[in-house]
Design brief:
Helix content is about 85%, strand content about 0%. It has two helices and no strands. The radius of gyration is 37 Å and the shape is rod-shaped. The model has no long low-confidence stretch (mean pLDDT about 90).
């Protein structure tokens, strides 16, 4: 006899002992269902948390890349202007 056959047979029994077996079976089944939900929810929470962190880091990296590109474009202009101002600040000796 298989487990399923046994459960099917016991579910047809009546009396105190059969009721205890049925109640234990139902409680165990409910416990297993709860464990599966917990496991699934834990997995989904970890997955969602990781995806959120991934998306945030991706956005930061993308923004950083765009800002670096702007800096690379502006840097020569700033350096040239600094050099010009430094030259203007030098005292010129007329000898």
């Amino acid at each position: 006899m298989t487990k399923d056959g046994f459960v099917f047979l016991v579910m047809g029994f009546t009396g105190k002992a059969a009721s205890q077996i049925k109640e234990a079976y139902i409680n165990t089944f409910n416990w297993m269902t709860e464990q599966l939900y917990k496991m699934q929810n834990s997995y989904m929470k970890q997955h969602n948390d990781l995806m959120l962190e991934y998306m945030k880091e991706k956005d930061i990296a993308s923004l950083s890349g765009r800002l670096l590109r702007k800096w690379q474009d502006k840097k020569p202009t700033y350096q040239l202007r600094i050099k010009e101002l430094e030259e203007q600040g030098q005292i010129k000796l007329l000898i």
